[in-house]
What we know:
mainly alpha
Amino acid sequence: MRSALRWAGYLAGGVIVIAAVLAAYIWIASNRMLNGPFAAKHENLSGATPEMVADASRRLHVFGCISCHGDGMRGSLFIDDPHLAKLYAPNVSEIAGKATDQQLAAAIRQGIGVDGRALAIMPSAQFSRLTDGEVAALIAAVRKLPSGGAPTPARTIGAMGRLGVATGKFRTQPQLMADYVQQWPADLGPNYAKGRHLAATVCSECHGPALDGAEVKPGLKSPDLDIVGAYDLAAFTKLLRTGIPASGKKLTLMDEVARANFSHMTDEEIAELHAYLVGRAQRSN
Ligand code: HEC
Ligand code: HEC
């Protein structure tokens, strides 16, 4: 009896040791993936025309910068779940007062925060497809915002969040980048280049790097954008401006981003996007 108890004790002790080693492994692995520190590549920031700079404040809306980071980009709590993470879209207006253009560009286009951490949620993999001039113009627009407000708290990642990162279920933006380098929306030639570029830099965050649909979050899938083949320009414009699809049914996330972000697109942008996506749909059929 006594020896049986002793063995049960050893077993319990062994399980605790294994659990502790596993927890330490998850913590160390996720920490390396999240906090690096990562070194950013040098950014070329030339090529912004005066017209692009003048238009860039509007584009902060189209790209969702304002809806995620809040009014004036003063920061907004994005995830608040003790098991997953407490994570802010930071107060970029305050950060910009201290950061160089190189640091801001690395955050936007490489997914590396000003402190060298790998960014999560911030769609930098999609923004890696922006041109040098577009990034420079966006930085100019950020710098036009009144700088200030309190710094947003640093992110904290909970146990489930760390497990997800360590096992590759949640990928940071530098990790996602590889998909965006390899998988592109179909190239339909120069007549469709503008619409393709817009889709690649605005829609691919949720519809996937090649626009063929993706799981946006557990239980929510976005369709292949071939679905736009069934939309005429009027119905497509209505969807992007109001979130109401041709079917009239109630959308969820798409409804939110259409009203908050895409309602700021110009008629010209919507027409280019429509022409490209219809062409892409016809090509696939
Ligand atoms: C889907 C929401 C979302 C969108 C859209 C978005 N951001 Fe972010 N952004 C975030 C989050 C969340 C973080 C912080 C991520 C982290 O800490 O892991 C972040 C981080 C940043 C940082 C780095 C700040 C730091 O602490 O180093 C900058 C700069 C930035 N965003 C600028 C922009 C700009 C400019 C745009 C538009 C071109 C934009 N963001 C669009 C959510 C978003
Ligand atoms: C933040 C994520 C997100 C972004 C960015 C996004 N979508 Fe969506 N979209 C979705 C999701 C999710 C759905 C599925 C419907 C829903 O929201 O419940 C969807 C559905 C759609 C549909 C199908 C509507 C229908 O008839 O059922 C179309 C068309 C569409 N999106 C076009 C676009 C275009 C064009 C862009 C870029 C300008 C874009 N989306 C950007 C998440 C997104």
